[in-house]
């Protein structure tokens, strides 16, 4: 069965294709891909994982053509960023 394991940094993305036997878990696929050798900062106790953009557990069973995604921690609070952008927008409108 074919699956993909992906990890993305700000300026670099890695996509690895694997041919695996069923049943295989998310964690098995990540370990088999050896992506953690290339990115030692990945910590499966801290980094969240997903399948096609939906959060998944490490023991989730994979299906044909699944894409396992390893997520990086957020560097900023999304709510705070929206507030900052809204404030900047108000400043820009008031200058016109």
UniProtKB/TrEMBL annotation:
SUPFAM superfamilies: MoaD/ThiS
InterPro entries: Mopterin_synth/thiamin_S_b, RnfH, RnfH_sf
Family assignment from sequence similarity: Belongs to the UPF0125 (RnfH) family.
Protein name listed in UniProt: UPF0125 protein yfjF
Organism annotation: hydrothermal vent metagenome
Organism lineage string: unclassified sequences, metagenomes, ecological metagenomes
